[in-house]
Automatic annotation (TrEMBL):
CDD domains: PIN_VapC-like (cd09854)
Organism annotation: Candidatus Woykebacteria bacterium RBG_13_40_15
InterPro entries: PIN-like_dom_sf, PIN_dom
SUPFAM superfamilies listed in its UniProt record: PIN domain-like
Gene3D superfamilies per UniProt: 5'-nuclease
Annotated ranges, domain PIN: 7-149
Name of this protein: PIN domain-containing protein
Length: 156
């Protein structure tokens, strides 16, 4: 598999990577190892972190009725651990938001919704990629992102 030099990591990849009992955990670890081995620069958006943290919080309490679940602040140490693990990784892992004009980035989100029938979150992920001129994404949403011309979609 030819991996690009720069690649965006979708939230679902982060979830699989950080949840040991996730069905795709081993596959995500292997792919991440290959990305690092080939010195790919990987990009994680703040939105991707938000999605991953919240999903991991939900999964950790999936067997507890919603009204009896712990408040998110009791999950603070787990969120902090995930961030610390990311920060320990090589320098070629970047946490990003819009690098260029924020207003243009948000306008691009709207265009992505109109052009690709994306939900707002996926439209934001694509807009972050467009902002940084990234041509590849690691995601389980292959069907969605395959709609985007000239975008390499890598599943795991």
């Amino acid at each position: 598999m030819g991996l690009p030099e720069k690649i965006y990591l979708d939230a679902n990849f982060l979830i699989a990577y950080f949840l040991d009992d996730h069905n795709d955990h081993n596959a995500s670890r292997l792919l991440f190892f290959n990305l690092l081995k080939q010195n790919c620069v990987t990009y994680i958006s703040t939105l991707g972190l938000d999605e991953a943290w919240y999903k991991i919080y939900e999964v950790s309490q999936k067997d507890i009725p919603k009204e009896k679940r712990k408040p998110i602040k009791e999950f603070y140490s787990e969120i902090k651990r995930i961030l610390e693990e990311i920060r320990k990784l090589p320098e070629n892992i970047k946490i990003i938001q819009f690098e260029n004009d924020f207003e243009s980035g948000v306008r691009q989100v709207i265009e992505n919704i109109g052009s690709f029938n994306f939900r707002p979150r996926d439209a934001f992920h694509l807009a972050y990629m467009q902002d940084l001129n990234l041509q590849a994404i690691v995601t389980k949403n292959k069907k969605e992102f395959d709609k985007v011309p000239n975008l390499q979609v890598i599943s795991y």
